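Fold this sequence, please.
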Amino acid sequence: MAGPKQDPLNGAYYEQPIPPQRAYHRPGRGSGFFCGPGSLLNALVNLSTTILGVIMIVAFLFWLLIRPLKVKVYVERASLTQFNLASSNTLHYNLSLDVSVRNPNKKIGIYYDTLEARAFYQGQRFDYVSLPSFYQGHKNTTMLYPIFEGQNFIALEGSAADDFNREKSEGDFQVDVKIHARVRFKVGPFKSFRFKPDVECELTLPLSNDGISATGFERTKCDIHLLHMRFVH
């Protein structure tokens, strides 16, 4: 006699159900608190760029506030007692200048941390001198006295040599003097970053033949080049 039929749903012979598989997601390279060396370097570069950008914006706003181009530079007097070119292209020279630097601002002082004057003839530098650093207060005029004396080689050939001979016969030489400086501006207790203005003085210098300053030099205003005003550390 056959036994009762076992219900496959209620019996004890079916297997334990298998749980569904969980999806596994591999973390990306940039996830998590710790980053790889490349990501850390990029973050540092981005941070440095941001900080530098903020510094440049602050420096530019400070520039717009103080307008340092109000400073005036003049060559008041000049004495050229020697300017001879030997056959070996050796220039013998003796040039002294009285340069006035005027700060007309009422609330801005200026630190001239470094100053160097350079003398050029036909685009060639033949001498340079360092000038003393100083602080210039409000509405103040300071005098500088660069002296260029000695001899140096300059290459004057063709038309350049012809120009020298022509200027010698006329008694006036065209000489450029450029002043390079590092300056800081002071407003109240605050001091700015350093800037590098370029000052250029285009001079027509009468030559004295007897070692005494020649007459005829005209007071000359120098140019402060805005495009050359650079922010430095």
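The first strand starts at residue 72 and ends at 85. DSSP finds two helices and twelve strands in the chain.
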